[in-house]
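Risk register update: the risk of archive-format incompatibility is retired. Evidence:
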Amino acid sequence: MANFPKVLKGFRVYIDGYDTGASANNIILPKITQRIEEISLGSFVLPVNMGLDLLTAEIELLEQDKNTLIQWGLLNGTTGQLITFRGYQEDNTGESNDIRIDMRGIYKEYDLGQWAKGETGKVKYIINLTQFTYTIDSVPYIVIEPLTNTFLIAGVNQLAKQKEALGIL
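Archived output:
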């Protein structure tokens, strides 16, 4: 099993195949949260898992870029644009981990930021995701695809019993 990275030594962000290069400054990966409802059963309260909440990611670029700007308004059905994050971590032993995160989603917000003389004009994108895959050393550890009702953790289909019961396996 791969060691999980502690410090990224470098990363790149690709938006629908376009390499944002060195302008990708910061990326906030989605929080994976379960929606828990509390059901009252007489004198007891029972938590019930109602599925996952909406996944949202943020990307910050250090410059205005026409290639990423035009992605904001594109209508690609319900799947949206593909964002790929690639990074690596290396420790003192010479071992390294390749990290790849593939996200597909619809741009919710495009923040043109604040401009000032002599400073970079940061741009921030907020994307509501329709697909999220977190891979380390070619092994997918988390796969979430709401459109296909897929939820894998370390290769185990968390929805297998539910899908089998509904006859949609």
